[in-house]
Design brief:
It contains 18 helices and 23 strands. The chain is α/β, with parallel strands linked by helices and 494 residues long. The protein folds into 3 domains: 66 residues, lambda repressor-like DNA-binding domains (434 Repressor (Amino-terminal Domain)); 174 residues, Flavin prenyltransferase-like (Rossmann fold); 205 residues, CoaB-like (Rossmann fold), CATH 3.40.50. β1 and β2 form a beta hairpin. The N and C termini lie far apart (55 Å). The structure holds ligand PMT.
């Protein structure tokens, strides 16, 4: 197609000259200028390229080449593997990405190849692995520009401190770093490194720079690292990385929604939901605390799933290393007292879900200075109970319509959880056994739940925390549609 034909095609494809002008934000004279000069400015071409999928085709902003969208096309992930010990985890990541129907093309840095071989990566992706910037064969088959352009999302996993530093400074001395500069796709970085390297000001400054450029970070997690130290720097869990990617790609598609009037209604539109997640940390002195191993994964997955279905979600979270889910208002707290206060401030909702692992005890008198180790004997710490937030909400005069709790049990799952539901006046309890086949549910990617209501119990098979969250959200949607149908109106935004 020549330029004139292309512009005519675009005009038709975007609903005529008026519509095209509106989309470009220009008047008729600008459009005829583009025709006369046979040039559509790149920023305008990009605008059209972004919204073209909504009209059923793709538009290359550089060549103005048009291609019809293949609905069955799998989202294309360009996975950049850099050289850290967690490189071996990229193999599992690829396997899981493919389970989730992503197509994966991998690029490996030279140092990544010291940890895992291109052969194993290629066997898992089912695609050629790229590593050389100046490789004539590769350039003939697929130049690096093309490699960057065909990606829907670029994922750097694991990302070393060195590679993050190169990205922050715009270096392009190998294929991987060059692709990061070339791509226009969203970039996600999943760091993995020694905790001191991660907390080093140089690394943190580099990350802050990248975040300002809209590059997203997944993790790192807290915990034991391969170098034997404990702290922040662990490669994020595979399931969490995948959920973040799915979230982004979903967002990309919905942001192509350019016609607000066509916006679809969702089952939880207009419903306000308050969710607690993560642990609470109760201070002993300025440096020590009582805490637990909750990662927040289950509560965050529920918050994400609720927001995805249109709910107005406020997530009150204890300290975790997860990013706020899309479209969720996050309030960070540390102690049970602060969590209760935040719940009190936000209680004007239709539904509450208490997924937090609130510490049951707090120290009666927190020491103002660090408790010293003496030769005599360890200090005596007197504990008192923390406020029971679920019970307080369940019995509140302005109790929300639907109150949902969790129960983490080690034994007599049903009996203990039933008792908790009645005692705390919750409508539903999701009972999870703390030890599932020998593995703790805390920080795991999977969960297994006994769903209890006033009228019965239902076993939910082992599944990812995201799947459990979606199942719960389904229940909540049914509940509110029943409430609506039975004549009690959903509360509108109060
Ligand atoms: O965060 P993850 O690593 O993903 O792990 C998920 C989880 C195991 C933490 C989660 O699924 C879960 O079970 N959360 C509740 C853990 C817990 O504290 O259970 P419990 O049986 O001690 O408490 C029962 C209910 O009362 C819970 O809804 C809890 O939030 C609430 N509670 C408990 C004590 C307290 N002081 N205030 C409360 O509100």
């Amino acid at each position: 197609m020549n330029y004139h034909d292309t512009l005519s095609y675009l005009m038709d494809a975007f609903g005529g000259a008026d519509s095209l002008q509106k989309l470009l934000g220009v008047g008729p004279s600008a459009l005829s200028n583009y025709r006369r000069r046979e040039h559509l400015p790149l920023n305008q071409a990009r605008k059209l390229s972004n919204i073209a999928p909504k009209f059923g085709f793709n538009l290359d902003p550089y060549t103005l080449k048009i291609s019809v969208i293949d609905d069955d096309r799998k989202p294309e992930i360009l996975l950049i593997i850099t050289g850290g010990i967690a490189a071996y985890k990229a193999l599992e990541l690829i396997r899981r990405l493919r389970d989730f129907e992503f197509s994966v093309t991998a690029v490996m840095t030279a140092s990544a190849q010291q940890f895992i071989t291109p052969l194993s990566v290629s066997a898992l992706t089912g695609n050629k692995v790229y590593s050389e910037l100046f490789d004539l064969t590769d350039e003939q088959e697929m130049g690096h520009i093309q490699l960057a352009r065909k990606a829907d999302l670029v994922l750097i996993a694991p990302a070393t401190a060195n590679f993050i530093g190169k990205m922050a400074h715009g270096l392009a001395d190998d294929l991987a770093s060059t692709l990061c500069l070339v791509t226009e796709a969203p970039i996600f970085v999943a760091p993995s490194m020694n905790p001191h390297m991660w907390t080093n000001t140089a690394t943190q400054d580099n990350c802050a720079k990248l975040k300002r450029r809209n590059i997203s970070f997944i993790g790192p997690d807290n915990g034991d690292t391969a170098c034997g130290e404990t702290g922040s720097g662990r490669f994020a869990e595979t399931g969490f990385i995948i959920s973040q990617i799915q979230q982004k790609l979903l967002q990309k598609h919905s942001s192509a929604d350019i016609f607000p009037s066509e916006k679809q209604t969702k089952p939880l539109d207009g419903i306000k939901i308050l969710i607690t997640a993560g642990p609470t940390l109760e201070p002993i002195d300025p440096v020590r605390f009582i805490g637990n191993r909750s990662s927040g994964k289950q509560g965050y997955a529920i918050a994400y799933a609720c927001a995805e279905q249109g709910a107005d979600v406020c997530l009150i979270s204890g300290p975790v290393s997860l990013e706020a889910p899309l479209n969720v208002r996050l309030i960070k707290v540390e102690t049970a007292q602060q969590m209760k206060q935040a719940c009190a401030d936000e209680l004007d909702v239709e539904c509450v879900i208490c997924a937090a692992a609130v510490a049951d005890w707090q120290v009666k008198q927190t020491a103002n200075a660090k408790l010293k180790k003496s030769n005599n004997k360890p200090p005596e710490i007197v504990l008192t109970e923390t406020p029971d937030i679920l019970s307080w909400i369940g019995h509140h005069p302005s109790r929300p319509k639907l109150v949902i709790g969790f129960a983490a049990e080690t034994d007599s799952l049903k009996k203990n959880a039933d008792d908790k539901r009645a005692r705390k006046n919750a409508d539903w309890i999701l009972a999870n056994s703390v030890l599932q086949s020998g593995e703790s549910v805390f920080n795991s990617d999977i969960n297994e739940v006994l769903f209890l209501s006033k009228t019965g119990a239902e076993y939910w098979d082992t599944d990812s925390k995201q799947a459990i969250a979606r199942k719960l959200v389904h229940r909540i949607s049914d509940y509110f549609s029943d409430v609506h149908v039975s004549g009690v109106q959903k509360k509108e935004n109060i």
